[in-house]
Amino acid sequence: MTKIKTVDHLASIKSYDGVKPLEIIAKELNIPVAEIIKLDGNENPYDPLPEVIVALRSLKNISFYPDTLSSNLIQALAKKENLEANNFIISSGSDELIELLIRAYANPFDTVLSVSPTFGMISFLTQVHGIKYVTVPQQIVKTESFAHYILDEDQFLDVARRSKIVFIARPNNPDGNVVSQKFIERLISLPILVIIDEAYIEFSNYKSFAKYVPQYENLVVLRTFSKAYGLGGLRVGYGIMPSDIRKVLISIKQPYNVNIAGQKAAMAALSSPLVKQRIIEMKKIRAWFINQLKLLQNQYKNFWIHPSEACYVLLTFESPKVPKNLFEYLYSKGILVRHYSSSDMINNLRISIGLQEKLVKVIDEIKLFLKGEN
Ligand SMILES: Cc1ncc(COP(=O)(O)O)c(C=O)c1O
Fold first, then answer.
1. How many Å lie between the centroid of ligand 1 and the Cα of residue 93?
2. Which are the contacts of 123, defined by CB distance < 8 A and separation ≥ 6?
3. Whether residue 1 has pLDDT greater than 90
């Protein structure tokens, strides 16, 4: 092993484990890719959009570097959102923007704040950059069938006053909850950078904060083509922000951060009428799935369902043993759901919304498992 030491803050860094690709899972389980039901990454369950296939087939000039700003995509997004082009920046997934914002605005002595549980990338990227990351834990409140994470908003605002950057995923990952507009307005009134991650906003019945960006100098909204638009594998995200912040991010980003295929595919996806239809269908499937889970909950009573405004449903179990065993059981059947190792999530499983016929099988398998447990 090399004797050359890393920078101090990376000495004990734990890598971010992304979801495994289908081909690797198929090999591990020795089953065909087509038999795998992949519900662990909140990925879009439909076939690629036909407009995207056409755009990728007609790709030209791939020997040349891409447009550094993804200007056509910016124009299309600005038109769609009814905002100025100089409020938009395109990125290699919205993950890239989380990193750019931390790099640009957090000094080593600053604090980055979010809630827990939330999207793990924020904790990971603050650690990578040696920045102090603080969370305000949400309290779980259980009713008969449902569980809700509740945030003490006053406590959060108190810590926010001593922070430099606040990240709020809205809807939140992993539970799909949406914090109130009032709470966000209170946050934006503070002299801190407020980043609203709207990766799942298309699946929500709540309104985006994008239209408020021109009114504030400290509000950034993050979006992605990975979820509703089904382009997770092509890595395209975008941010809507004050032009001053955008200027800073453009000045530090890698020039060719979004490749030609990603830029073209995102343009094509934006033009597709199927996107809206599929979102409506996924929201219907989500309601049906929660109902099916509720029937199981009524019978077995050892878990609670988190109502969700996103493309996944979080379950909280009474003990860590059941979700761990259920995860392993489902995995052995070729069904992948998200099981967590972090201490605040050991009682949980998160299941992405897939096609209804696949979720019928998931419900059947969960039923079989719970029957065997009782
Ligand atoms: C809340 C949240 N934000 C951002 C992302 C990352 O999106 P992207 O694929 O655009 O990097 C995810 C991905 O799961 C997410 O859950």
1. 7
2. 114, 133, 135
3. no
Q: What is the pLDDT of residues 18-43, one digit of tens each?
A: 888 888 888 888 999 999 999 999 99
Could you tell which of 89, 125, 168, 173 is best to mutate to test the pocket of ligand 1, judged by most ligand atoms within 8 Å of the CB? 173
Ligand 1, residue 224: give the atom nearest the CA: 10
111-134 pLDDT, tens per residue?
999 999 999 999 999 999 999 999
The alpha carbon of 295 and the centre of ligand 1 are apart by a number of angstroms equal to: 31
Residue 217 bridge partners (DSSP): none
Q: What is the pLDDT of residue 298?
A: 94
* CATH number for domain 8-47+274-373, candidates 3.90.1150.10, 3.40.50.300, 3.30.43.10, 2.60.120.10: 3.90.1150.10
- Answer yes or no: are the C-beta atoms of 338 and 176 closer than 8 Å: no
Domain boundaries for CATH 3.90.1150.10 within the chain = 8-47+274-373
What is 142-182 written as a DSSP string?
E-SSBEEEE--HHHHHHHHTT-SEEEEESS-TTT-----HH
Of 121, 172, 179, best ligand 1 pocket probe by most atoms within 8 Å of the beta carbon: 121
Question: CA separation (Å) from 319 to 94, 322, 347?
Answer: 34, 6, 6
| DSSP-derived secondary structure letter, 2 | -
CATH number of 50-270: 3.40.640.10
**What value does the mean pLDDT take over residues 99-106?**
98
Considering the chain, tell me which residue range(s) the CATH 3.40.640.10 domain(s) occupy: 50-270
CA dist 167 to 134, 276, 279, Å?
11, 27, 25
Residue reference for tokens 């690629």: 48
Give nearest CA residue, ligand 1 atom 7.
Answer: 94
| SS3 state at 73 | helix
**Which of 175, 225, 178, 167 lies closest to 344, judged by CA?**
175
- Cα 99 from chain centroid (whole Å): 14
